[in-house]
Amino acid sequence: MPRNLSLAVIAGDGIGPEVTAEAVKVLTAAVGDSVSLTTTDYPFGATHFLASGTIIDDEDFARLARHDAILLGAVGGDPRDPRLAGGIIERGLLLRLRFAFDHYVNLRPTKLYPSVVSPLASPGAVDFVVVREGTEGPYVGNGGSIRRGTPHEIANEVSVNTAFGVERLVRFGFEKANSRPAKKLTLVHKTNVLVHAGGLWQRTVDAVSAEYPDVAVDYQHIDAATIHMVVNPSQFDTIVTDNLFGDIITDLAAAISGGIGLAASGNINPDGTFPSMFEPVHGSAPDIAGKQLADPTAAILSAALLLDHVGLSDASARVTAAVEADLASRGSAKRSTSEVGDAIAAALAS
Amino acid sequence: MPRNLSLAVIAGDGIGPEVTAEAVKVLTAAVGDSVSLTTTDYPFGATHFLASGTIIDDEDFARLARHDAILLGAVGGDPRDPRLAGGIIERGLLLRLRFAFDHYVNLRPTKLYPSVVSPLASPGAVDFVVVREGTEGPYVGNGGSIRRGTPHEIANEVSVNTAFGVERLVRFGFEKANSRPAKKLTLVHKTNVLVHAGGLWQRTVDAVSAEYPDVAVDYQHIDAATIHMVVNPSQFDTIVTDNLFGDIITDLAAAISGGIGLAASGNINPDGTFPSMFEPVHGSAPDIAGKQLADPTAAILSAALLLDHVGLSDASARVTAAVEADLASRGSAKRSTSEVGDAIAAALAS
Ligand SMILES: CC(C)[C@H](C(=O)O)[C@@H](O)C(=O)O
Ligand SMILES: CC(C)[C@H](C(=O)O)[C@@H](O)C(=O)O
């Protein structure tokens, strides 16, 4: 009897539907008959919000929670649309899901595949993973302002960090580092300025590291880390960092390893209490939407992370290998979004 | 009668004294007889703190305030020394000076000089300036923790942003952009997540931009900005950003334009109420200290910013030109710290 896999698919806005279609195509080909796969489409995103006035209602939220995992394309409309100002979709949908489903690990592997061109002249071997915290830090929405719109306005943002939240993330980071050949963990923070949060992070890494004698531990300030990332990225193995620093460093990591067209991510609830959510690092890119110009590779690699997360690690490895082969065979000829997906799905079927 | 110029010199720790000696040498050569230059050395830094138990006392502080400007090398000791944990020197000296002397503009020009090697394969023409806020944001030290060291610890950091502080910085940014040929200002923030601070920044830029019709205005999220910085840095002209994002993006900017050995900065009090302070972006690099290995170029270019700030713009331009010529003539042969300073000073004297 094939096992069941029930996925929620939020294709989203802009290029989201195009790249997600390819990810579903590849995922379906990868699991074949071994899995009874059902996908349920959810319409959430900027387009849905502008048409319906609702970002996501409680019933839909409850329905989402019943799936085994969520595949998300990209959400967000025209950034200049005043109805979407202040990140209303990003916060009301993406961050809401990450927080409500306790996606405390935001896992972002970075690999420079052979044959992929880096903007760096001599990148060396780039193969690391960023373990970004997903439910705390400056992302908690714990800010406010007074005297808004006056010369006396004061606007605060509060970064909230808890021992509970930091420790579980750091533990995940050490487990990850311990499972990798290089066994090296780098904490990235700004402990010399953000002393309260930084102290908690540093002390937590120090304490947990005692349980992982084989993992070498390193520390870099976020500013210095950006230098290392462009000067010598091969030094990195497992980076553990907070929500905001992780946001920044993973875009940079994507850039040096071939661009956000290739960067996958998983918003993971390791406890399995809630469905984890897999999405490319890139946004909805409204300017190129609907033209079959977007590279679906990041979405496909995110589907591979999904497969691994739900225990289908063989299928996951096959997808990654097929992507790697496809990247190696890509010439300079431009292929459409669906041509890339078709090629990878065909390789998996054969 | 030559005009007087009274400088406070804080050579600091590690490579600080070596690079500062060269900066003073070059500065002295640049002003020649036109200026009656006096320099007063102050011993502040990690070494001084470890020896004396004091970072900086109130009397010294008052003395510092009487100089026309401050030249600073680099401060900070061994990061693993527990007596220096939590950025005690960085906060107690560097940030204290920036805040007390109201250095609300942290000016960091980035230029990829011809003949300087960038880690980017095709950097293009890189010539922009970052106008980083220096007295607000997450740097205000407005955080705290409860239940420290227990599983229930909560550590918060508060980013404080005021209309007063943001507006004066943004105005400086527009003035700067307006004075440059490209006349383009890019706000870098994270308005889709940090909505209160981000809203204030965005509204301020929108409002002030109305007074600068010739300046084109752009916006990038900090994460996306790191991508643009490695993929297409020549798009930037004037970047306006907050204290933390400016810290991050200027290290990255330094990296892509030849490294922090070349990156200069000015902590500026545009009102002239307090002395402004000029320092290389790099740190004290204790590992290479005392070996004449450090490149003093960043310190020398910081001295050029100082000269410009105190109204000696001809001398400033001469230093910059001499540095540019020196960079162009540098072969692959390694020169010592003082050899670089000697060469540039000699060029100025001739
Ligand atoms: C869209 C935005 C809220 C999001 C984030 O900041 O986390 C994105 O940049 C990401 O990295 O997934
Ligand atoms: C030393 C540190 C406090 C400082 C900062 O974060 O501002 C440094 O990184 C800089 O950029 O001047």
TrEMBL record, chains A, B:
Its EC number(s): 1.1.1.85
Which positions are annotated as binding Mg(2+)? 223, 247, 251
Where mainly located? Answer: cytoplasm
**Binding note for cofactor:** Binds 1 Mg(2+) or Mn(2+) ion per subunit.
Which cofactors? Mn(2+); Mg(2+)
Q: Which UniProt keywords apply?
A: Amino-acid biosynthesis, Branched-chain amino acid biosynthesis, Cytoplasm, Leucine biosynthesis, Magnesium, Manganese, Metal-binding, NAD, Oxidoreductase
For the ligand (substrate), the binding residues are 98, 108, 132, 223
* Described purpose of this protein according to its UniProt entry: Catalyzes the oxidation of 3-carboxy-2-hydroxy-4-methylpentanoate (3-isopropylmalate) to 3-carboxy-4-methyl-2-oxopentanoate. The product decarboxylates to 4-methyl-2 oxopentanoate.
Which family, according to the similarity comment? Belongs to the isocitrate and isopropylmalate dehydrogenases family. LeuB type 2 subfamily.
- The entry's protein name is 3-isopropylmalate dehydrogenase
Lineage here is: Bacteria, Bacillati, Actinomycetota, Actinomycetes, Micrococcales
Q: Gene that codes for this?
A: leuB
